[in-house]
Amino acid sequence: MAGFNVRSVLVTGTNRGIGLEFIKQFLEKSNPPKWVFATCRDPAGAQIQELKNLASRHPNLVIVVLEVTDPASIKAAAAIVEEHLKGSGLNLLINNAGIGRLSTLESETPEGMSLVYATNVTGPLLVSQAFLPLLKKAAQESAQKGMSCTKAAIVNMSSEAGSIQNVCSWHVEQILSYRCSKAALNMLTKCQSLGYAGDGILSIAVCPGWVQTDLGNTSSHKAPLTVDVSVRGILNVLPLSPRRTTGPL
What is the mean pLDDT, run by run of 10 residues, along the chain of 249 residues? Predict the structure, then answer.
């Protein structure tokens, strides 16, 4: 992680868990980004205080309201970020915001499937579309050859639970809508990698592991990974991401 220096980064879903930890670790770097954009749905919510405390100590941290299922909110957030960047591009977009529901093949509902899909799949699609001009600008500004997470990249937070070959932890929770949404997110990432490679934008999906978050822990099982270990591992992997072949990792 020491050599992973990025000028600007935006992370969605940062009021808690993995998203909040991303913000912490970016700010803790010896050479932190010039701009760290932390998005959340409700800036007045009870869980936002820790993020506000960080913003009071770090002038390079900007909290931005963004609801990933609301196109108007996404558009407004992109305008705010563009204003702060003052003509520069956005180097790294981390689509972290996501939800999960405890559901089974027997209990899942159309409403539940639609809600999770809208957040976990359509959300990253819409957010990536809105910030694509800024990502393209970052790629054009860079003198780097190939593609990388420090040049211009979309990172979608996926899950091994979305793997069709390895349907992990089925015996723990079926979480049907969550699994289906992450499988779809992997396909979205592959499509983005094909569609945006010509613009010099890297598109990858990463799995954070089974992490001790509100989503990761269940009533009968505690996830093995702490949030800080998970995010540190991701930030160690991102600089090693392939520069020519992109897609799910």
Answer: 81 95 96 97 84 96 97 98 98 96 89 96 98 98 93 94 67 82 96 97 91 57 80 92 51
**b or e along 87-116 (b: 16 or more beta carbons within 10 Å of the residue's beta carbon)?**
ebbbbbbbbbbbbbbebeeeebeeebbebb
For the whole model, what pTM was predicted? 0.91
pLDDT of residue 101: 85
Specify whether the CB–CB gap between 93 and 127 falls below 8 A.
Answer: yes
Phi-psi region of 86 (alpha: psi -120 to 50; beta: other; left: phi over 0): left
Beta partners for residue 225, in sequence order: 211
If 0-12 CB within 10 Å is exposed, 13-18 middle and 19+ buried, where does residue 164 land? exposed
Q: At residue 6, what are phi and psi to the nearest 5 degrees?
A: -125, 140
Residues 65 and 61: their CA atoms lie apart, in Å, by 13
Residue with tokens 């954009």: 37
CA nearest 158: which of 53, 249, 39?
249
Alpha-carbon distances of 57 from 51, 62, 74, 117, 176, rounded to whole Å: 10, 11, 26, 36, 41
Rounded CA-CA distance 179/161 in Å is 5
Residue 146: burial class (beta carbons within 10 Å; 0-12, 13-18, 19+): exposed
